[in-house]
Amino acid sequence: MTPDPPPPLDHGFLGPDSVAWRVFRHPSSFTVGFLRTVVTEMFDPFLLASVADTGATETRTSSRYARTLEYVATAAFADSQRAVHAADVLYRIHDRIRGIEPISGQPFDANDPDQQLWIHLTQWHSVLFCYELVGPGPLSAADEARYWHEGRVLAELQTIDPDTVPRNRAEMRDYYRRVRPRLAVTEDTQRIVANLLGAPGTLATRGSAVAGPVVRAATIATLPGWLRRLAGLRQPAAIGAAALRTARVALQAMDRRPEHGLMVLADLSRGAHDVVAPRVREVEPTEAVVRTPAEAFAAAGLVPPRHRFLDSADRAPKRAEAPRDRGPEALLELA
Fold it and tell me: Hey, which of 184, 218, 247, 303 has its CA 20 to 30 A from 130?
């Protein structure tokens, strides 16, 4: 058993009774669910342009994957102060990623609310979808309603207008229908998606030589057929079905042994592990309260990302200033 990090200051924005904690704690979330998330994100050409500009997804796949997983874990599980500071750092990093999307010739901005909404929703939906497929199965109607509400809460950590976040699965399907016409695939898309699915560092875990191919095949099987065709991901249905069955058995067994799941999470992202471990081990926080993002930003003396974005005087593209990845340094180094 790895030692516990210091106890969190509070229950963050969701708390131990939340549905999202139950879903995100399941091993399906940080394996198939998260890989599905990062793959799906790449089909938005504006997000792809920002990723291609930094080059981090290909040059430092494992560290970039680990740092992104750390941020997701921080937003969902960390105490409120750590979460808002992480959100502030991420806003400042994204503020330097602007340029021109080459297909449309239109500017992209990593902090644009539409782009942030796409990132948030592909994650929120993918984690739930994979929890259903290779985890315990569908939520009750009441729990699913709570899950979508909790997604609206965490959207406040980004530049997103919470009123644009779907309230239920039907609204999520409507969102996908609206955005599907703008999705596109270029050579960059296919190369980056193939790298995410095939890079040894993406799933650098104990037993990854065996688990990696299963998780990758299961991830591809969760993607809708039209998206697989768009990406040129050819996989026989029998292989996908077998991978989903194998993943379901393995992840359910891992869920019954939480410390095993934490070891796997530590292999993927030590930072994510350190945030999630106290919640899995039910370490009591300093103060057993759930905050709102607005309360936490105010207490930290920080301007919420959406307000900061709307108040920004100059959102002109700055192509030349898009930063290169500097290596495996911690996400919170700018704090």
Answer: 184
